[in-house]
Amino acid sequence: MINFGIGSANAATIMDLLIARHPRGVLFLGKCGGLKRTSEIGHFILPIAAIRGEGTSLDYFPRDVPALPSFKLHKFVSDRIVERQLEYRTGVVYTTNRRMWEHDVEFRQRLRNMTCIGIEMETATLFIVGHYNEISRGALLLVSDVPITPDGVKTEESDKEVTKKWSEIHLDIGIDAMADLGQRGEPIRHFHY
């Protein structure tokens, strides 16, 4: 397990360094802001894709290359969530380097138009750099705030509460999924085009 802090540049560096270990897979456990009215703090999101709004990933592939997880790795994560009788959402998340966007009406409208389910700062980078380095990758995100509602913007106090209440189960799901992948997962092939 690696706690790399925050941001796409850190995520890219870690994914570049991990290639030396030839991991069978990498699962990002992070927090995100929920962008749908149905999003609630404590919901899990298993992103099916990430929109590359962060910039770092452009050093690896052109913007036209989609940021996608490895389906087989996500299947292991999904199975662990279902075994615990928890719900999760799937959808597209938006990855940004931008801070303090919550009051930018134009930016919020763009997010609505893109129908994103969540917003965060690393997922697209992890997916793209994993693709570049031929590392199977996935993400399990925890909704830590709902910034589209008036009282939903994350504060230091609210973040501590979310961490206290949800981080243990979040971590357990990730560890179980990756352990299961390591024990009985078939090799995930990377094809060259």
Describe the structure.
The protein has 193 residues and is α/β, with parallel strands linked by helices. The protein has one domain (8-180): 3-Layer(aba) Sandwich (Rossmann fold). The protein contains five helices and five strands; from the N terminus they run αββαβαβαβα. α2 (71-83) crosses α5. The protein is globular and about 45 Å long.
Briefly characterize the structure.
The protein is α/β, with parallel strands linked by helices and about 190 residues long. The protein has helices at about 10-20, 70-85, 105-115, 125-130, 155-185; strands spanning about 25-35, 45-55, 90-95, 120, 135-145.
How would the global form be characterised? globular
Gyration radius, in Å: 16 Å
For CATH, the homologous superfamily is named as: Nucleoside phosphorylase domain
Structural class computed from helices and strand pairing: alpha/beta
The top-level CATH class is Alpha Beta
Low-confidence stretches: none
Named CATH topology: Rossmann fold
Mean pLDDT over all positions: 89
Can you lay out the helices and strands and say which pair or pack?
Layout: H1 8-18, E1 26-34, E2 44-53, H2 71-83, E3 88-96, H3 105-113, E4 118-120, H4 123-132, E5 137-145, H5 156-184
Parallel strand pairs: 1-5, 2-3, 3-4
Antiparallel strand pairs: 1-4, 2-5
